[in-house]
Amino acid sequence: MSRSRTSPARCRRCAGGRLAARLRATLVSLALIPLCLLWIYPFLWMVSSSLKTNAEIFGGLGLIPHSIQWDNYRRAWVGARIGQYFVNTVIITASAVAIVTVSTGMIGYALGRYQFPGKRAIVAFFVATVFLPEGYTVIPVFELVNRLGLAESLLGVILAESGGAHVVSVLLFAGFFSQLPKELEEAAIVDGAGFLRIFWRIMLPLATPVIATTIILQFLQTWNSFLLPLVLTLSRPELRTLAVGIYAFRGEFFTDWGALAAASTISLLPIIAVFLFLQRYFIQGIAGAVKQ
Question: What superfamily in CATH does domain 75-290 come from?
Fold first, then answer.
């Protein structure tokens, strides 16, 4: 009897709670929509400007062009050599991402799975490098690349972009690997696997979320890198990356703003595509690495 009397009341309370939660979610979404539009307006304006003439760009802040100027993309891709810079950037970014993912994974594996003297000092050293401005490291990096005979080459830029402590990626890998059960390594050792085989065949495939996070972080850093590629390609304009090429796009007396906006749009589209493709793993990587 008591169950039959209380069940309708409980159902009404549950329905009321769901309705209130749905109403709150709707109100929050309605409040966030204007903020989202305000946040993405600069990007939308840049895309819109890439389809306008110079006169129309300076004629107002509207987003809809009067007549679509597809020729802006042709001038940017061919005339301004953005196509060549795009290929250079893809080569440099893909190589740097591969090198950094493997190197930070191995460092994080050693820090997360093994105890050795000086471990805390090494971690503190990694963290301390976060406070070192990039501008202070340009000259030593350039000198090192020059002494290796790799200056004015894509390989030199790749090694320069792959260098550094990459603190966030190392700590994410270390936090993830430290949570894995020791039985995985013990079983692999019994089967005769060594350090590299355990890392490459067992541990690294389990760290897919952290790998995706590292790929996103390094992709953003290398794709948008400006200072190092600028210094290392001063005498070789054909080796410029997109960031350096777009910076050099502006003329002394005249700037083709429509083509410049088109070049900027071309530069941003791969970043958006990569992030949208890997965002689910990015969130999992951050959450899994910090979970205790």
Answer: MetI-like (1.10.3720.10)
